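Hi R.,

Here's the chain you asked about this morning:
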Amino acid sequence: MSYSIFSPNQEPDFRVGVVKPFECLSRGWTLVKDQYFLFIIFCLIILVLVSCVPFAGIIWGAWMCGIFLALLIKLRGGFVSFNDIGKGFSFMSQGFVVAFLSGLPFLVIVIGAKLFEAWMEEMERTYPGEDALPGDVLIQMFTYLAGLALLYVICFIVTGIIFSFAYQLVADKNLSGWQATKLSARAARENFGGVMGLLLLELCLFTLGIMFCCFGLVLVMPLAKASWTIAYTQVFLPPPPPFAAPQPPPPPIFYGNTTNT
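And here is the predicted structure, written out as tokens:
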């Protein structure tokens, strides 16, 4: 069933139990490898903008729609250019809704980080000029940091499952942000094992990227997005029709001369 703006109650069908994490990773690399450096530039531009330009985060959703749109074009045999990424801005409102909803849980981490910063400033005032903080203070500090890290992983997994196909649905099916989120959550629930496996692979990739002075994030992001594009096609696009054996040719028809008697 295809979605139409004239039939808003219809939603795309999805398949169940079809996500294969390692296959997604392998096919994702095959998808982007011939234009890998172009996708790296795409990722680098948006990360620099979001990190350095105030309020640039509002375009995050449009950029995500743009990169998934470009990957779908690539998957369907097209050649990707910067113009394809720019097409994501035609989904600005839907992408913003998805980005806003998926970012809400991380506000807790931001608040926790601010509280930790204030606590550290208080510790510096309480123990001025000392070479090392007392042992109990260090234990509290590491416990707090470990709690923040654990909370981040939980938020990453929960939002990664719920919004695993949301941007792709916006870019490919032109769903609203809320419709895409609901449908993505249902599809991920019915493909929970595969989605969770791919999410853990993505977490490992991002961890490796952070270990390389954070610049590695730019190197792994194209592969991660391409893998989720493959997962999306496994779930939402119909499988190819089975190969039909050629039918035997019809029996020959012989035409002879007829003799009138």
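One quick note: Residues 1-8 have pLDDT under 50 and may be disordered.

Cheers,
M.
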